[in-house]
From TrEMBL:
Protein name: Glutamate receptor
One GO-annotated biological process of the protein: signal transduction
Organism of this sequence: Rhododendron griersonianum
UniProt KW Transport keyword: yes
Positions of transmembrane segments: 589-608, 650-674, 830-850
Amino acid sequence: MRAVGIISLLLLHFGYLQNVFSANVSSRPAVVNVGAIFSFNSTIGRVAKIAIEEAVKDVNSNSSVLPGTKLVVQMQNSNCSGFLGMLGAMQLMEADNVAVIGPQSSVVARMVLNLANELQVPFLSFAATDPSLSSLQFPFFVRTTQSDLYQMTAIAEIVDYYSWKEVIAIYLDDDYGRNGVAALDDALAARRCKVSYKAGIPPGSAFSRGDIMDILINVALLESRVFVLHVNPDSGFMVFSVAQYLGMMATGHVWLATDWLSSVLDSFSPLPSDKMDSLQGVLVLRAHTPDSDRKRNFLSRWNKLNGGSFGVNSYGLYAYDSVWLLAHALDSFFNKGGIISFSNDSRLINFEGSDLHLDALSIFDGGSLLLNSILQSDLVGLTGPIKFDADRSLVLPAYDIINVIGTGFRRIGYWSNYSGLSTVPPETLYSRPPNRSSANPKLYSVVWPGETVIKPRGWVFPNNGKQLKIGVPIRVSYKEFVSQVQGTNNFKGFCIDVFTAAVNLLPYAVPYQFIPYGDGKKNPSYTGLVESIAAGDLDGAVGDIAITTNRTKFVDFTQPYAASGLVAVAPFKKLNTGAWAFLRPFSRLMWGVTAASFLVVGIVVWILEHRINDEFRGSPRQQLITILWFSLSTMFFSHRENTVSTLGRLVLIIWLFVVLIINSSYTASLTSLLTVQRLSSPIKGIATLKASNEPIGYQVGSFAEHYLIEEIGIPSSRLVALGSPEAYATALQNGPKKGGVAAVVDEQPYVELFLSSQCKFRIVGQEFTKSGWGFAFPRDSPLAVDLSTAILTLSENGDLQRIHDKWLQSSVCTSDTAEIESDRLHLKSFWGLFLIIGVVCFCALVIYFIQIMRQYSRTAPTVSLSNGEGSSRSKRLQRLLSLIDEKKDPSKSEPKRRKTERSSSDSVLETSPKRQAKFSTEVDIIPHNSRM
């Protein structure tokens, strides 16, 4: 019974579902009207018309999409006119179309999309690429192709890849062209590049060849040689023709065309020879569509559809996919219960009866539901995945980069928003983590205009007769570096010669003129000179300009041509040897520790030898003298006392090793002090200057003032501005007590030139900044890069050194080549030796006292029994001290060697009187012989 019940429920359930499905299918209309608006006679329109018709046929013949419903498309020709496009769109709205495929033109789209907003009819455009057509302003606009935002990003990455900094944009002066170039400008700015000039072409047929020639002549006078052409085919081919006539398709020029050119190449390749000749070396973008079986099948059908009169371009594929996207969205719309119904707009009631028949326009009630179905679509078409992101843009935008060569073109790489430039198809990279590393290969080689494979520099000096204004500081000191020729605007000096030599190495002429900077009374502010470049008053600056962090925020510098860094200069005095020069090798602490070590070692050896060695016994006075004599005599290895204990010998051998090291070091240091001249200065470097409160001098106009205040933290009240080497010398000689300075902080090249004739001063401490001198130019100036290469060439071939030797004389203070006072020998260099001897002494004393205590413990009970009463603490201490001081039995302690010596001496004393007399006679005879 339970089984029968379950079966009954299932039958009822399936019956219900069948009724619902039947009702859903029956609610679908037999025909769905869809509009299409584009330009039938345009390059894109010809292909789109056939693609849309084929897509409608395929949809209607496919039972899985819109079952029981026929899709009918009504087409209107906008003829690339906003006015005609608006009229065509109104006619489509009167026919109650639920959606419109198109418009093709961005200009037409901006006109008709307001109508779409009012009537809530979705527009699916397969070719309107204007990036300003946003979903916020036009919510019923769906772009089924790629936005020019991504195309311009791809061009910006190509420009950056080839290290070009400026481009000239030639564009159609309408919404399509202006907004595309605006997107290009933003993309370039993100990569520190820019559109240096924008040349607009009038839209439509309102331009002639003469107008194009006027535009290109003006462009040819500019600096950049990288051109981005964002136009339509008619104006684009005329631009290339005129450019070829003017010689702008020759070597050194770069032309980047957007996808308008690839559409023509795909549709009508090969083009006539005159057009192909004008396109040689051009780089072109084309929307990337991944290879697939479905795409290949469609392309094989294409020739049969149009008789081979023209090929299919990417916009035709997007048009085909737009129909399928709309069909799937309508199917989802009906599955969700959507009903096609229209209602009158109450705002159009006032227009009833007029000749315009605006009351025929009605609002599509299901427009919002159909729009959501479109945006939620997720399918794969001829162009790849058809899916929208949060900004209503197709996911995974990508472009092919092709190079026009000969009678055709060659693909040199790809660009995708996922991984940037690459020689690998984007769909292969989607399965990998994004990698934009510069180490990866980006693009294949390119044949540039002029049939060269050498990358164009991308810029030249303009042919309008304008010279670069190069600012040069008017120095009043150290004129060997930069100085103005009196009565002229010419300059000479080390920096000028380096600049002239570098410019002569450039492969092109550089017209320039020197502009004096400063009043000639004091050195100008070099930071102000750099800021004049950033403000556009100067095109560059040449001179002894230090490359600092603050200055690099405004301008670009060339490769440094001279090393520079801040150093401190101070007076010095010569250290004479004097009567007490022998004390100088060691510091005071070193002398003290060494003396204490001698005394400690003497005491330790005395303790270890006192009980068993007669040479360390005697009266207290004799023992004290023995300790002092023994310890001091070890300094010269001349000690006469023998050590007989093992511990004493261990301590002595280690101590003699320490003494050997100390003696050697002392001798070497003293020799150096007596033979090499030494210089002394109370200033040891920047740390000493910072810790003191004495005034510090700096050169007027130098960045040293800012560095000392901001980086070192020295108060500005301590800084004294000095304008010449003579002022340096006077201030240093006077010193702080006489209104001078304790030291001068300046850049090393100036200091070296100053010290070449001033032998009373020296550099103290180390160089505390590392920088260099360079020539300054505006940010991203290509001249800075080329001059850097020229400076490196000068350095490698030796010309830079020859220029240096010409202007900057070497030091004449050759007799005073010694350094400022070198460090003495300090305890830190020997503490390891003292530690070793200290540990050995300690261990020897510990072992010795352990032996004493063991001997004391053996003798203490015997003494206690003999006394008959317990010894007091004082008596035990006296016993311990007496044990330490008592003489140990020589027979038990003396080495065998000493016993042998003693027995030998005894035998001599016990010889016969006759032998003793003979010995005495021989002794008496020796002095007489020696006198002879």
